[in-house]
Amino acid sequence: MLTYALIKEGAVVNTIVADADFVATIASEWDHIEPAGDAGIGWSWDGGTFTPPVVAPVDPGPPAVPQVCTPAQGLVALFVLKQITEDDVKAAIAGISDPAARYTANIGLSRATEWRRDSETMQVMATLLSLSEEDLDELFTFAVTVNV
After folding, report:
1. How far apart are CA 52 and CA 33, in angstroms?
2. Rounded to an integer, what distance in angstroms lies between the CA atom of residue 107 and that of residue 122?
3. What confidence tens digit (pLDDT) does each residue in 81-95 have?
């Protein structure tokens, strides 16, 4: 028993494991039947050699925007990209009218171990600092590269 490639129009469309007698009974249904070796479905046949299919490279698309950074990374990124200082951030927080939201933002600035891109506080701060969604993407993308 051998593995045979069933070939139509120069391409392997199937493989079977069979003996020569069975192959003889189906030969008229195919352009060619050849012992497959390593060839598989999708391979080309030029009358003497099998060629594997060409696999087009997959475009992975743009890298995902990081969703988390440390406050230190975020503050450096804010300054490098937008010239926004820690004092500017503190002033923006002081301008939050809701005491609970202001307190949460203060804790986020002074005690958080990470800033989350999708947090409500980050969205409030972005608005107060006039940062667009694209600005936030750029901020987090840059921030994760900062070593402090």
Report:
1. 17
2. 12
3. 999 999 999 999 999
